[in-house]
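User: Sequence in, structure out. Go.
Assistant: Echoing your sequence, followed by the C-alpha cells.
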Amino acid sequence: MQFVIEDVLQAPPAWRSMPAFAEIDAPIARAVLEEAGKFAAGVLAPINGKADLDGCTWRDCGVTTPAGYREAYAAFIEQGWAALACDPEDGGQGLPAMLNAAFNEMIAAANHGWTMYPGLLHGAYECLRAHGSSELKQRYLTKLASGEWLATMNLTEPQAGSDLALVRSKADPRPDGSYRLTGSKIFISGGEHDLTDNIVHFVLARLPDAPSGTKGISLFLAPKVLSDGSRNAIRCDGIEKKMGIKGSATCAMNFDGATGWLLGEPNRGLAAMFVMMNSARLQVGLQGLGHLEAAHQNARAYALERVQGRGQPLAAHPAIRHILWHLRAQVDAGRVLAYWCAALIDESHHDQDAACRQAADARVGLLTPVVKAFLTDLGHRGADDALQVWGGYGYVHEYGIEQTVRDSRIAMIYEGTNEVQAIDLLQRKVLADGGAQLQTLLSMLDTDVNAMPAALADLAAALRAQTVAARKATQALIAGQMADPEWPLRVADDYLRALGLTLFGWAWCRIARAAAAVTDDDWCADALSAARYGIEWLLPEATWRWQRISRREAVLQSIASQRKI
C-alpha cells in the first residue's frame, strides 16, 4: 500500500498542492495505514469465521448481530474510522479519499460481513451533505460522519431489481412538510441491527403526481427513531438466509406510513441517490480487491508451508506458481487502479483549478463501472482459483478460503450487477459522447508509457498495442451502432473487461517503472516480476477481447431472434 501511494501514484506531493490536505505527508499516511492494519487484523479478522457460522438472528423485536460485532463497531467509532474522510466542519478528520480506500480494502479483506454495516456511511454522508435541507443536515450529518448512527439505501423492491422504473413505494405529502412513506423493500443491508440506536434510511418512492418511469422517483430520508424518541413506522419483516456475508443482516423492510423528508428535488431522486450509489460502487470494487488480497495472502502462506512431492513446498510446483503470480499481479494492478480512482475523487473536490476538478470528476465517472465490475469479478474468480492451492482442505471451513469464495460472490451482483455496469460504461460513458472521454483517458495512458525507461520498452509496447486496439474497437461500435443498435449490448461485457485489462496494463507499467528505480530490495524485485507476469501472461486476453468487440457476431444475433429461448 505504501509503495502504491508513495512510489507508483506519488500521492503525497499531490496532497500538498491541495489546501485541504496540505499538512498530510507520507509519515502521516503510513501511521494511518499501520493503525488501520491493527484494527482489521486484530479486531475484525478474529471474529470473521465464527460470524459466518452463527449468522444473524431475527425476531419481531429486531436483529441480533454475531458475537463480537457490537464490540468491533464500538472500537470503530472510538478510533474515528467512520470520520476518516469526512469534512472537519462535520466532525470528520478530513483525510484523503485514498487513505479511506486503503482502510476499506483492509476491513473488507478481514471481515466482509461486518464491513457491510458501515459500508454506506460515507456515501450517505455525501448524499445528505449535497442534497439535504439545512434542518436535515443539522439533525443527521454529524451523526453519520461520526458513525454514531448508521445508514441504509432502500432501492430494491420485489418486482423491481435493477429496473428502478418499476419502483412502487409511495410518498404522500403532509401539511408539516414531511411525507408519509408506504411500500416494501428487499435486500436492504443493515436494515435492522443492534449496533447503533438509530438507523437513517434513504428511501426511493413516488409522489402522487409523479410521472412514470425513473423520472418520477424521489428520494427521502426516514429515520428508525424520530427526533421525539418515538419509533417510526418502519419494520424489518425478516432477514435472508444467504450464500455468504452471513454476518450482515440482509433485510426485508416495510414502510407502513413512515415519516420521511424529501432529499433534493421532487422526481429527481435518482440524481440525488447516485451520489450515494457511486460511492457504494467504488466501495464494492474495494471489496473485490480485499477478497483478492486475502486470497493471495492466504494461498501464498499455505503454498510455502505445505510440503507435497519430493519434499518440496507447493509453491515450488509450476502450476501453483502460476496461480500465485496470477493473484499477485492482479492484486498489485487492482490496487493501483482503485487508489488512482480515489485520488481522482480527491482532485475533483479539492484541486484549486476548476477545470482540473471537472476533468477529474468526469474521469471518475468513466472509471467507476470498471472498478466496480472488474475488481469484483477478479475478487471472486481469484478466490476460486486460490482455493485450488489447498486441494481438499480448501473446501472445508477451517482454512477460510471457501468463505472468501462465498462472501465475494455477492459483490458481482449488488450496487448494480456487473452486466449493468458494463452497459453503463459502454453506452453512457463511452458512446454517448462519441468516445471523447475515452480518447482522453487513452491519450493519458500513452503519455505515461512514453516516460518508460528503455529497459522496460517491451512492456510499454505491449500497452501501446492495447490502446490502439481500444480505439479501433470503439470506432467500430460508433460507426455501426446506428445500423445495429444491439451491437454494443452484445459486447458490453467484453468491452468492460478489455478496458479493465488495458488499465491493468498501464498499472503494471507504472509498477514496473517505480520498482525498477529501487535497487537491492527483494520486495520491489518481486513487484517488478509480478508486473512482467501481468503484461506477458494476462494482458494478451485484451487483444482477442478487442477483436471480438470489433466484429458483429452473427451467432449472437441469431440466438437473440429465437424468442422461445
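User: And one key feature?
Assistant: The chain has a mean pLDDT of 95.
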